[in-house]
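Annotators were shown the component list below and the corresponding predicted structure, then asked to write short factual statements about the assembly.
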Amino acid sequence: MPVLTEDKLAGDIGVPPRMTPPSGGDGRGEPDSSFPVSSRQMATWLLMTGVGMLFAGLTSAYIVLRGVPTWEHLQLPPMVWGNTLILLVSSLTFDLARRAVKVDNISAVRKWLGLTAALGIVFVSGQILLWRQMTASGLLLTSTLHSSFFYVLSGVHAVHILGGLIGLAWVSVQAWKGRFSSISFEPLRLCANYWHFMGGVWLFLILLLVFA
Amino acid sequence: MADGNGPGRITIAGLAFAFMMLVLIIVSVWLFVAQPWWFPELASVSGGDIDDVFMAVLIVTGIAFIGVQGVLGYFVARYGTRGTERAGYWHDNPKAEAGLLIGTAVIMTVLVFMGQRVWANIYFTDAPEGTLEVQATGEQFAWDFHYAGPDGVFGRTDAKLITDTNQVGLDRKDDAAKDDIVVVNEMHVVVNKPFKVRLRSKDVIHSFFLPHMRVKQDAVPGMSILVWLEPTRTGEFELACAELCGLGHYRMKAKVVVEKTEQDLNNWVKQKLAEQTAN
Amino acid sequence: MQVQHATEHAHPQLGFWRKYVFSTDHKIIGIQYMITAMAMAVVGGLLSMLMRLQLAWPSQQWPMLGKILPVAFAGNIMDPGFYVSLVTMHGTIMVFFLFTAVLTGAFGNFLIPLQIGARDMAFPFLNALSYWVFLLSCIVIISALFVAGGAPLGGWTAYAPLSALGEASGPGEGAGMTLWITALGLFTISGLMGGLNYVTTILTMRTKGLSMMRLPLTQWSLLITAILGLLAFPVLLAAAILLTFDRMGGTSFFIPSGIIMNNRLLGNSGGHPLLWQHLFWFFGHPEVYIVILPAMGMASDILSTFCRKPIFSYKMMVYSMASIAGLSFIVWGNHMFVSGMSPFLGSVFTMTTLVIAVPSAVKTFNWLGTVWGARIRFTTASLFSIGFISVFVSGGLSGIFLGSSAADIYLQDTYFVVAHFHLVMAIAPLFAAFAGIYYWFPKMFGRFMNEFLGKVHFWASLIGVYAVFFPMHILGITGHMRRIYDPLFYEFLKPDQAMNVFVSVSAFALAAVQLIFLANFFISIFAGKKVNENNPWHATTLEWETPCPTGHGNFGDELPVVHRWAFDYSVPGAKNDFVPQTVPPGGEKV
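Structure shown to annotators:
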């Protein structure tokens, strides 16, 4: 009876059902029968919590200083929207990779993962280009508080995207080696979770920086 | 509550610990009641309120301190073992727990209300009309006191005019500044008359601390913070900086002189003006 | 009966380096954290000895020190800038690199898998990595003492703009400050890796039968602390990032306009110094609970073991730790009553601060309830857990003065604060850590520490800590400010000097006593009395099912199954005065 439930669960989250009866943790990350979430999933949520708190701290600094009477709100180059779009599309392609693995379409998985990585690299490059564009037009790190925040927030975010790219690289290697299947693709799903989260963070940051 | 099997035994270790608790209680009571070293002698009105709050908290925490350390010492002495006796297995008493919890919460609430009245008096009450105002600027590592002089208007200051001898950048050409004085590390006020201090800082955070008057307020660059108080004794009082501001933090000492009459204060201001405009 | 595949334990025999140095075994990593933290304690302690030397005999000539540290003791007298850098580094090293590291890093790593019935952490490699990043952070912070200009001057709290203006603020604010920030950044990353591991492991890898409400309080405290760390440390990192940009990038996050240094107006504009304080203390207040909560958990468990009596009101102990953790996020302004923060906020923070006193009071009552009717076995470990209660109460009660904003106006930045936080954040956790070390030493090394030396250590330390820190309350009441190089500069502090000398001499004695502990610890590893049984203390928790010392894989072929909570001491009708967690219902009578 428990096996049936686990099958259904496995299909959604990519964790294969256990063959042995449930036992306690064995020190290698296998879930305990009584806890509904796998250790890797838990770790990914905790990571996102920590990263989220970092951006929460930076955001609260922004909100506090936004009230300063000498605040100058600057116009950001339109390129920033292009970069944003690229990042959001990369979330889409990552999700397509996840859908592909659920139907065991491994060649599609590789394609979509590769595209996601490419878009991620384009995003980071785009951000660097954006900074150069801003610097060239006189919008420096030190110009106003608003520009300072833009550089710092987008910079810290880019660092975290790079981290996500490293994870994505590892997942891609695993996909190439054929390690994923429709019943076992948890690392792919978790990496996608992180990627979507960072996309969401960017969307939040850019809306904050432009409209708040 | 059943004691379990076998009597608790008094042990040497237990007695030694109880003795330590007793010594702790006696020494602390002596320190806080006989007060061989205590607050500097009070010299302000609002300071008296602060001392009252301190005393209220002291009584509450003192009782708790003696009670808990005493009971701890007693239990440790009383409930030793030689190895085979059993303790009681009881480990819950929701009523007692709730009672102690609520009791603590009530006591804390009372303390909050007592303290808040004093806090409101200090921060949410304005100084009376016509109170003397002194502008105090902290810098690494001195206090600059700027008086408006007899015209009661502060002269213009400009950061570009700041030099080693013109600490606040007073523009002597300004009409209002003609009777201003700026004195380093010395402030004069009048007894039984309130005075206002507008606190600023040139560089880093300093803190304006007058222990005898129980006043402390950080001076933050970019902010202009007002404190006011009424001294109750004449004499000379020390002012210290109470926020770490660099390697010279310890020597940011200033002298606050509480004069007997307003005339005495005015004389001092006149004397200082003469010194400063003589150049 | 859970059968673990025997092949999983047939590891190839690891060489010395893989087994004892670059190990991924949580027990080795825990011991590595412990020994590193002890080394940092010695450094931090030495720094405070130098501080006490200066405070007791200000501007005294010290020719020996003048020879060893010619820059710090130019002309044989301590340099005032050096004094303030001592203050900064002592605080930083002790708070982070000793206390946070030893309680969560050492005990967390060693105990979590053992007490939950797992073979290792969820992510052993990440665990090892967190230790090596921690070690790196230790090296970086120590190097701040040796660079040109020396260590920073801003205290461990590094208030802006002093910390944001770089060299202009004073020596040590250049390279020294950069290293300081780097070390804290590395420490934060190490902490986050560890915290991630702890929460995941405790939640997902408990053995069969070990429900959350059967966990020892040590585990609850480590879980709650790890969650606190994940929420609080990133905010410190955020503040440190903004500070770094101010220092090196020319930004003005914490620097307002109008700053005049060396008679020159700086070009910054728009920043606010109080923003630093808000960010720092939003982290800083949970941080103090990150230090004390594991201490409370461990002391509670050890107390119960040696009282042969269940901890009083286990449920309330869990709820109170959780509520302390939650409340810790809304009290941070209690460090900022005189900072220039809005007085209205000051009122709010007074209320929340006095609320957080309530769960701590509950815990104190419960400790007393545990000792009441107990049958105490006096070992070094139990003595330190009892001493913990006394010291925690002393330190906690002085917090009530500081939480009352009106009283805090006078007491802020005086030695009253120093007394409070040392007793409650340094001495109490230290006593709990000592209790833990004497208690779990047999499990770690298969030998006992010497009990006689342990008891000398305890009694001398108990007297010593009160001799050093209790008079500081009085010093604060007389108005003695913190971080002051020369108290004799002030007339009103001159009568205090006898107390300052008393405190310093007591501090030297207290430090000397700790050498007994260090000698005992290291010699016992090799020559201590051998332990002949798994469970020398007759305790109930799962780690005592394993041999002393515990081997790789912890539990042999089969993982334990838990049938009861961790506090079945003196159970009526039971054969022994303790019933391990693995004994099925009814099995205690046999």
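Statements collected:
1. Residues 135 and 149 of chain C are 24 Å apart (CA to CA).
2. The first helix of chain C runs from residue 16 to 21.
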